[in-house]
Amino acid sequence: MGGDDAISVIFQSSPPPGVGYSRNPVVTQNCNALYAQAGGVTAVINSTAAGLIAAWRQQAPAGARLFGARDGIVGLLEERLVDLSALHEPELDMLGYSPSAALGTCRHVLQPEEHARLVAVLQRHRIGTVFYNGGGGAARACGDILAIAQAAGYPLNVVHVPKTIDNDIPDTDACPGFGSAAKYLATSLREASLDLAAMAGSSSKVFILETMGRYSGWLTAACGLAARHPGEGPHILLLPERPFDEERFLRRVRETVDRYGHCAVAASEGLTGANGELLHATGQRDAAGDRQLGGVAPWLAARVTARLGYKCHWSVADYLQRSARHLVSATDVAQARATGQAAVMIALAGERHFSPVIRRLADDPYRWDIVAAPLAVVTAPERRVPADFLTADGYQLSAAGRRYLAPLIVGEDYPPFRDGLPDYRIPAFTDISLSP
After folding, report:
1. Where are the domains of the chain?
2. Residues labelled catalytic
3. Dist CA 210 CA 190 (whole Å)
């Protein structure tokens, strides 16, 4: 990844950056930039925003402005822009501690009739660089934005800034947002498993936790970190990468209950059957055309109760796993912020049409840096969980999987608390004038 001549920015722990980028930024006629957030939020996407804004203020050419688009690409089309350059240090600090997405996001595929409008807004505000912070859908949107600008003869640098709790963007060691969601889920499953074990003698014997992950099971695999010793939950991991076999699953549940008295299960919302079909999905689709998922846990619980007679509880983590800023991974926060910083520094050094991705240098202690990957690389098909990250039976985390996942959830970065609750405050962004 990246190659020997890749632009590389070192961001390990807290040392200041200073490797592989120029302090003489490339200046063009369209010297302003735009930042927007896209897709499902993460607990640390605002840390990326804070890092990017801070780097722009420190490194951009004098007079160059950084705009923010409300609600992603939709806000750009509707010219709902704010001045991010005006944020002060205390506001950036607050932003970095906030969950959700401070500017708002969207799931929107650009339509042919919107192309001219897109270019017109970019020209109007002299925007030469677009930073689009999102997952795979945002990466594809970056490709669309670039193609539209090129067709119009408009000089534009398009930078995909990665984030997704699904952890499925190619060519990066981990996606900002994943480590924190993984930490929340593994913590929740460890605690729920202890609850289950206490009640199993006379009550529920099976608990099923449903995680997000449309096509890949990274979050479900991360739940396996909760088990440190034999017999600890989760006892069964169900990933999209392994076709679901109901008879085999029920047999494993019965064996686990017979042996330990209870069985904790982590299951991906994108669980598939032998023919690759989704086992549970609604008929609804989002703006990008993806089917709405959710409901695998109650479906599995109904099968367990009907076939085995066990009392079964289930939970769907849903938004909770991606919004839990109170229990983020310090590693994830550092990577999220560094990714935003690197996006600016690498772009100002002259690199074009890229994504700043994380490269693992060592497992223990965990060391990493950031390199520029071409847009074409990060828009490739989703990265799936490798087969060797699971045990041979496919139901538990292997040593290789644990070695990869464990460093990503390390460390805590608590937000400030007030009256017993996190004291979250989204900065008040200043709308820019829309007059010519």
Report:
1. 8-176+326-381+411-431, 178-325
2. 166
3. 14
The verdict on domain 178-325 having CATH code 3.40.50.460 is yes
CATH node for 8-176+326-381+411-431:
3.40.50.450
Numbered residues of the known binding site for diphosphate: 40
Confidence of residue 86 (pLDDT cuts 50, 70, 90): confident
Tokens of 6: 């890749």
Residues forming the annotated binding site for substrate? 164-166, 212-214, 269, 319-322
- Write down the pLDDT at residue 287: 56
Average predicted confidence (pLDDT) for the chain: 91
CA dihedral of 274, 276, 281, 286, whole degrees rounded to 10 = 170
Same fold, 8-176+326-381+411-431 and 178-325: yes
First to last CA, the chain: 44
Sheet containing strand 236-238, strands side by side: 236-238, 263-268, 206-211, 312-316
Pick from 432, 347, 426, 371: nearest CA to 142? 347
Contacts for 337 with CB less than 8 Å, ≥ 6 apart:
11, 44, 47, 48, 50, 51, 96
| Of 118, 168, 175, 202, residue with least CA distance to 290 | 168
d(CA 281, CA 293): 5
pLDDT at 75: 97
Mean pLDDT of 357-365: 96
Picking from 280, 271, 274, 281, the residue whose alpha carbon sits closest to that of residue 240 is 271
